[in-house]
From TrEMBL:
UniProt keyword Methyltransferase present: no
Keywords attached to this entry: Disulfide bond, EGF-like domain, Membrane, Signal, Transmembrane, Transmembrane helix
Stretches assigned to the EGF-like domain: 152-193
Signal peptide start-end: 1-30
Signal keyword on record: yes
Coiled coil: none
Protein name as catalogued: All-trans retinoic acid-induced differentiation factor
PANTHER family in the cross-refs: ALL-TRANS RETINOIC ACID-INDUCED DIFFERENTIATION FACTOR
Disulfide bonds: 183-192
Upper classification of the organism: Eukaryota, Metazoa, Chordata, Craniata, Vertebrata
One of the protein's GO biological processes: positive regulation of osteoblast differentiation
Bilayer-crossing regions: 198-219
Length: 229
């Protein structure tokens, strides 16, 4: 019987390193595209890094601060030569803090932050306005090189317009300075005026009958043209 040779310490270490490397590659491949949109990683003393290091359960990966489930809580895209945040930016809608300073951004971010309802700290180039305007934030601090938009306000409580949402709807925040009206349960449609569940059967029935009618009309027109020719 051949003797059993115990594994050496070096062999165990090499196997462990290979396992960690494979796990690291797998995790890197699973990162949202926005985290790797810009080369490099989060700087140790950046606002995003400081936020991420406050909670042991959070981790820095590429340009993102993630929780254990991979949800983006922080995004650092400073100094990435961006004129706009890009098509992958909505992936960071769960972020609490975002840093976009030192980028040649265009001063038109009004529609960029739809859905970013958890955003509380936004760092921008000094010449860029806070999305939604200053009233959408509790505090706006301007420095020589950047601007910090701090504390997103719930403007639903301060609009003072009772007719903003219909009787069967309620106001809801959908990002800095962005409001939407949400229909109450049991209501739907234009201005939430229709009561009851939305009937898909009726919708597709009407759509199908309309399509069939148009098809018959076109078929008859083509036959008439064929006979006259």
């Amino acid at each position: 019987m051949a003797p059993i040779v115990p594994s050496s310490g070096a062999s165990l270490v090499s196997r462990a390193m290979a396992l960690l490397l494979s796990l690291g590659v797998e995790r890197a491949l699973a990162l949202p595209e926005i985290c790797t949109q810009c080369p490099g990683s989060v700087q140790n003393l950046s606002n995003v890094a400081l936020y991420c290091k406050q909670t042991p359960e959070l981790m820095l990966q590429a340009r993102c601060c993630l929780n254990q489930k991979g949800t983006i809580l922080g995004l650092d895209l400073q100094n990435c030569s961006l004129e706009d945040p890009g098509p992958n930016f909505p992936q960071a809608y769960t972020a609490v803090i975002i840093d976009l300073q030192a980028n040649p951004l265009k001063d038109n971010l009004a529609n960029t932050f739809h859905g970013f309802i958890q955003l509380q700290t936004l760092v921008l180039p000094q010449d860029i306005s806070c999305p939604g305007g200053n009233n959408a934030w509790k505090q706006v601090i301007s420095y020589k090189d950047n601007k910090i938009c701090q504390g997103q306000r719930n403007l639903c409580n301060s609009t003072g317009d009772p007719e903003m949402c219909p009787e069967n709807g309620s106001c809801a925040v959908d990002g800095p300075g962005v409001l939407q009206c949400v229909c109450a349960d049991g209501f739907h449609g234009y201005k939430c005026m229709h009561q009851g569940s939305f009937s898909l059967f009726m919708f597709f029935g009407i759509l199908g009958s309309t399509t069939l009618s148009l098809s018959i009309l076109l078929w008859g027109t083509q036959r008439r043209k064929a006979k006259t020719s």
